[in-house]
Structure formats: structure tokens, C-alpha cells
Design goal:
Layout: H1 2-7, H2 11-33, H3 40-51, H4 55-62
Helix pairs in contact: 2-3, 2-4, 3-4
Length: 72
């Protein structure tokens, strides 16, 4: 199926879609595994990741990493 989409010109869309899913999962797992300075920030970041689909993971990578206590 993937080769079919790549041959039909949808390869760019598939690649960006896969990259987005990987970025989204990375951010979600990082949020769940981390401790934050404010305990409610974990819930807030999860909601941002879930509801701000494109901007949520990017905002977390830029802003959210600074509000963590520990990094894995």
C-alpha cells in the first residue's frame, strides 16, 4: 500500500503524515514519563497535544521542555 501511494504522487503526504505521528507519539510519551514543576502541567500538556493537533507538539518542544523537573 505504501509503494502504491508513493507511485501515485502521494509520497510527500505519506512521509509528512508519518513524521507527524512520530513527533506526536514522542511528545506524548515524553509528557507521560516526565515530572513537571507544577503537577497540573502534565494534564495541560496532554490536552494541548490532543486538541491542538499541529501546533501542540511543536509548542511542547519549544515551551514545555523548560517546565520539566527531570529529563529522560
Amino acid at each position: 500500500m505504501l509503494s502504491f501511494l508513493l507511485n501515485m504522487g502521494g509520497g510527500t503526504i505519506v512521509i509528512f503524515g508519518l513524521l507527524y505521528v512520530v513527533l506526536w507519539l514522542y511528545c506524548l510519551i515524553d509528557i507521560l514519563r516526565s515530572d513537571f514543576k507544577d503537577p497540573t502541567m502534565k494534564l495541560i500538556w496532554i490536552l494541548i497535544i490532543l486538541f491542538a493537533q499541529v501546533l501542540g507538539p511543536i509548542a511542547y518542544l519549544i515551551i514545555g521542555k523548560n517546565s520539566k523537573i527531570n529529563a529522560y
